[in-house]
Amino acid sequence: QYFGTAIDNPSLAPGGASYLPYSIDNSKYRKVAYNSEEFGQVTPANGLKWMFTEPSRGQFNYTLSDEIIKPAIKNGQFRRCHALVWHNQLPPWLTSQTWTASELLSVVRTHIAAEVTHYKGQCLHWDVVNEAFNEDGTFRPSIFYNITGTGYIYEAFAAAAKADPKAKLYYNDYNIETVGPKSDSVRTLVKEMRKKGVKIDGVGLQSHFTVGGTPSYEAQTANMAAFTKMDLDVAVTELDVRMQLPSNGMKLAQQAKDYNTSVMACKNTKRCVGITVWDFQDNFSWVPSTFAGEGDPLPYSSTTEKKPAWYTIAKALRG
Ligand code: G3I
């Protein structure tokens, strides 16, 4: 089992990304990010997404993703790659056109063939399709679903399998960390894929939780078991535990317990292959910009100090 982190370009580049209007002191952050003892695995948080890798149709650009993947290879950190098909962060050329189903399927195929081929042997896991379901387990009405039905899902996995037969191919989503309508639908999808002979190796449980609201150990392990008994791997792919700000000692203690629950659930599940936190330092988290008044969801403080959660995670991983 690996323990890893997502990393984004603005926080990784020395002094912060060049497009930022200010420079940040991220020297401590960079040391931790590149320390393979600390993080045995790395995921680019944004750089592999469609808007960045194929900004114009047929024109591929791997500048951002290479910035994260290359040092990870050099440091011997395992690479989980995210995400080939998602309804968010799509390039305007894709979203502003009306496509027929066969055109859009071919666009998906071309995109995946190029990106997965570029990273052949370098991306050991791929999140092939991300967040295809609504909370009630029906399919999300994305541009892909609206035009191709579920066809894009099969097309995407088949194209990824063809481009890098050795990569482990994942379906990835949030709120599928316990048994319920949404995770049940993922299991149904996997059955359908297998019936059609389309390869899928694993399911990514994003695990964006809240302090005190993390599903119990029993609930998480039961759900993992429901997947693994279908001959699937599972991975905790985007773990974070956000709180209502401001932070205090009680919240930090509960947050540490919540992290422990997810880490132990994975640790004690034979086919849970690893855990990824969705970045590791509070000020680089996606949470505050999405949930007003919430934040501090990660194991390191904004000034790269270890929080109580860091120590419980370390203990859980060692023990
Ligand atoms: O690239 C632009 C840059 O050109 C611009 O100058 C800068 C100004 O703020 O913004 C940059 O884009 C930001 C992008 O991240 C890249 O850093 C967007 O504003 C920002 O909205 C975007 O947020 C990302 C979000 O996905 C998009 O929905 C988060 O960083 C990323 O952590 C988050 O990750 C998702 C997973 O992919 C899927 N699961 C949920 C998870 C959290 O939302």
Give your account of this protein's structure.
It is built from 13 helices and 10 strands. The chain is globular and about 55 Å long. Helix 10 packs parallel to helix 11 (249-267). Strand 8, helix 11 (249-267) and strand 9 form a beta-alpha-beta unit. Strands 1-2-3-4-5-6-8-9 form an 8-stranded parallel barrel, surrounded by 5 helices. With 319 residues, the chain is α/β, with parallel strands linked by helices. The protein binds ligand G3I. Ligand G3I binds at residues 8, 10, 19, 45-46, 83, 88-89, 130, 206, 238, 286. One of its GO terms (cellular component) is extracellular region. One of its GO terms (biological process) is xylan catabolic process.
Looking at this protein, list some descriptive labels:
TIM Barrel, 13 helices, polysaccharide degradation, binds ligand G3I, 10 strands, single chain, glycosidase, 8-stranded parallel barrel, globular, 319 residues, alpha/beta, 40% helix
In short:
This protein is α/β, with parallel strands linked by helices and about 325 residues long.
Number of helices: 13
Question: What's the number of domains?
Answer: 1
List unreliable stretches of 5+ residues.
Answer: none
Rg over alpha carbons: 19 Å
- Large-scale geometry: globular
Query: Considering the protein shown, what is the CATH homologous superfamily?
Result: Glycosidases
Which cofactor or ligand species appear? ligand G3I
Q: Into which percent range does the helicity of residues fall?
A: 40-55%
The largest β sheet comes out as: 8 strands, parallel, barrel
Oligomer class: single chain
Percent in strands:
15-25%
Strand order, largest beta sheet: 1-2-3-4-5-6-8-9
What CATH architecture do you see? Alpha-Beta Barrel
Topology as a string of helices (H) and strands (E): EHHEHHEHHEHHEHEEHEHEHEH
